[in-house]
Amino acid sequence: MRFLSHGAIGSNKPKGNSNGNKRFIRVNVVDAEPMTAYEFDEFKNREHSGENCDGYKVVYDDGYVSWCPKARFEEVSREIDRMTFGMAIEAMKKGHKVARKGWNGKGMWLCIPLCDGPKEIPATDIWGKPNAEYAAQNGGKAKVVPYITMKAADGSIVMGWLASQTDMLSDDWVLVG
Asked: Phi and psi (nearest 5°) for 71?
């Protein structure tokens, strides 16, 4: 099963706590399968340690494998067919395509082409005559910042897609491909 796993990492205390820990939010797309702690120990070829409880073997996109107790995993993870809009944005920032189950058009999806941040693009590679002219007049390139595009039902690419209130409040976002 594919899941989007998210959660706070680090201290639960406010910033500036006495032990100096920082707080983090993480978002990962993972594969997971139910597995007890003892089954995971056997999978890793190691001695059983601690209590045998239900949980999940978690496999990250880079191949890293870990185990997580069932309650914690289910608290911070959602199957990828029922993500929030915020989770969908985080998935796009990691290079994934997303869509809503409820969209009427077939084959529609969203992505963030420059998900790794702003890029300097040469004037010759910039779309739109006014944009290319601006870049040519300003050192031959322009900084292009990340944006969301949509592959529409008619096969066109919509530059600069904007979400509706319904899109932002829906929990039916899915990974595509």
From this structure: -60, -45
Residue-number span of the structural domain to which 11 is assigned = 2-79
Q: Which amino acid makes up residue 122? A: P
Cβ atoms of 99 and 109 closer than 8 Å: yes
Torsion over CA: 104, 159, 82, 43 (sign): positive
Amino acid identity of 51? E
Query: Which phi and psi angles does 136 have, rounded to 5°?
Result: -60, -35
Instruction: Record the tokens describing residue 153, joined without a space.
Output: 């039902």
Q: What type of residue is 84?
A: T
User: In order along the chain (177 residues), what is the average pLDDT of each group of 10 residues?
Assistant: 64 56 81 94 88 93 93 88 90 92 88 87 91 94 93 94 95 91
Same domain, 73 and 151: no
pTM: 0.71
